Amino acid sequence: MTGIIAAMSCEAELILNVMRDKSPRVICGITFWQGKIGNEDVVLATCGVGKVFAAACAVSMIMAYSPDRIINTGVAGAVSGEVNKLDTVVGTALVQHDMDTTPLGDEPGLISGINKVYFETDRELSDELYRYVELCGGKAKRGIVATGDQFVASAEVKRRISTLFGASCADMEGGAIAHVCYINNVPFAALRTMSDGADGDASGDFMEFCNKAAKISSDVIITYLSTK
Ligand code: ADE
Fold first, then answer.
1. Phi and psi dihedrals of 84, rounded to 5?
2. Known catalytic residue: 68?
3. Which residues pair with 95 in a beta bridge?
4. In angstroms, rounded to a whole number, what is the distance separating the alpha carbons of residues 36 and 123?
5. How far is 145 from 160, CA to CA, in rounded Å?
6. What is the DSSP letter of 201?
7. Nearest-CA neighbor of 145 among 199, 227, 73, 216?
8. Of 173, 196, 199, 205, which is the active-site residue?
């Protein structure tokens, strides 16, 4: 079974529309839809915005459905000059850019206890998704996804995230889901299409491009799962 987590309903609804034989179950206030896309068993959840909702969703999904892998799909803000609006970043690794125990001598983003900054994604699954972005006519990039409880909308914050972490884009959930998947040994991949440039224009661009960007990611997931 493949688990799919999106933050907002605009990122999940197209996928939900093509699921067959679906049934809902609410856990932690989050609705999980179990069903089928093509021959694949799927569980889909719209977790809400931010790391706590994302982690609660990933834990619940793993406990209740034991998915073989989890894919995080949706939109993000581009923080690298090499990534443009409506490009799709397939995550190579995820980092939590707002995790900060540097006053204790740690490096930025370090998760104490497990001693990790970057959570690597599943290579095989990510390669497949990359191929499907291109098959669907999208512009695929590989890169690091930086997650924090912050909508990034300034050149200064954007520069910090790209410089400190070598990130391609910023989101608000992926790093939390990757973290939960890591501690539960569940293969994970992230697919994020750029709605904005995480700069001073980000709020307006997000409003304008969010649905279009979400559709690009959703189409890739649907096509990939339908042909699996
Ligand atoms: N998701 C979409 N755009 C974003 C941004 N600029 N910052 C964080 N998450 C986002």
1. -110, 165
2. no
3. 118, 146
4. 24
5. 14
6. T
7. 73
8. 196
**CA 199 – CA 54 distance, rounded (Å):** 24
Ligand 1 in contact with 186 (CB < 6 A)? no
Percentages (nearest 5) of helix, strand, coil residues in the chain: 40, 30, 30
d(CA 117, CA 104): 15
Residue 196 annotated in active site: yes
Query: Is the model's pTM score more than 0.90?
Result: yes
Atom 4 (ligand 1): residue with closest C-alpha?
77
Task: Say which residue the tokens 């000059």 belong to.
Answer: 81
* Number of neighbours of residue 137 by Cβ within 10 angstroms: 9
For ligand 1, whether the C-beta of 202 sits within 6 Å is yes
How remote is the CA of residue 204 from the centroid of ligand 1, in Å? 12
pLDDT digits (tens, 9 = 90+) for 152-178: 999 999 999 999 999 999 999 999 999
